[in-house]
Amino acid sequence: MDLDHARRVAVVAAEAAGALLRERTKGDLGVRSKGRGDIVTDLDLASEKLLLERIQAAFPGHRVVAEESGVSGDPDGDWTWLVDPLDGTNNVAIGLPLYVVGLALCHGGLPQLGVVHDPVGRQTWSAVRGGGASGPQGPVPSPRYRPSPHGPVLAWTQGHDVSRDDPAMRGLKAALDVRARRVLQLWAPLLGWVMLARGDIDAVVGYRAEAVDLPGGLLIAQEAGLCVRAFDGEPFDGHTELPSHRRSFVAAHPALVDDLLGLVTASTR
Predict the structure, then answer these.
(1) What is the SS3 assignment for 79?
(2) Which domain holds residue 204?
(3) pLDDT over 90 (residue 102)
(4) Torsional sign, CA 163, 168, 174, 175
(5) Which backbone phi and psi does 263 adopt, to 5 degrees?
(6) 27 falls in which pLDDT band (50, 70, 90)?
């Protein structure tokens, strides 16, 4: 598998989907509920259609798992694409221009390629396993950690199936609110991963995170030198077969990750 070729195909497809989204956010979005507090719009479906057409034309033997339409392509394919056509749908629905397009290519359940495109900023980030992360200005350097006396700036993400009265979630969020300078809830998890990779924020904390928008962003952060650990302290690789109760993690600079894991342990006992 030529991952550099796959990256080029994925970047071109994501940027084409971004252009479509950028243009169509000016019109009627066709918003409707998917349940569990989540929504879908005509934009999601149009972007996904474009992405599927591009990927399936280039890689007909691959399996594809898309946010809205589910599984397509070769069900027995060794390679699987994960497609998030519009990460940040809730933001778009309220007129907040904070959304991205995400693609990941996995083999054996592990992400090998990740692409995130920001249609508003017209910027793209990508990574190939073992090959480093790239951004609009080229290779993404490992971000420097600058401790603040007011605490770190974090992005929080959780899965749609997490209930509002989940005791572990409530305890952890309360602890983070006290410890951190700011806890961002972006409603666009892939954007949080990019912000971490480029050093805009200090960490991403995920609780039972969604599966489709996890592996690609995680790989970009890892290839930029960030450390990602499960709540039990073990390395977290974003394997696609992980059940939701095992998709909880802390991603941060190596100098910060142990401190945050200690906070997680204390708040979720």
Answers:
(1) strand
(2) 153-267
(3) yes
(4) negative
(5) -65, -40
(6) confident
Per-residue burial over 75-112, b if 16 or more Cβ lie within 10 Å, else e, is eeeebbbbbbbbbbbbbbeeeeebbbbbbbbbeeeebb
**Which residues share a beta bridge with 153?**
182
C-alpha distances in Å from residue 136, one per residue of 117, 124, 191, 219: 10, 6, 15, 17
Average pLDDT, the chain: 95
Same domain, 126 and 12: yes
Q: pTM above the 0.70 mark?
A: yes
Contacts of 141 (CB under 8 A, 6+ apart): 224, 225
Query: For the domain that residue 26 is a member of, what is the CATH number?
Result: 3.30.540.10
pLDDT in tens, 112-158: 999 999 999 999 999 999 999 999 999 999 888 888 889 999 999 99
Report how many domains make up the chain: 2
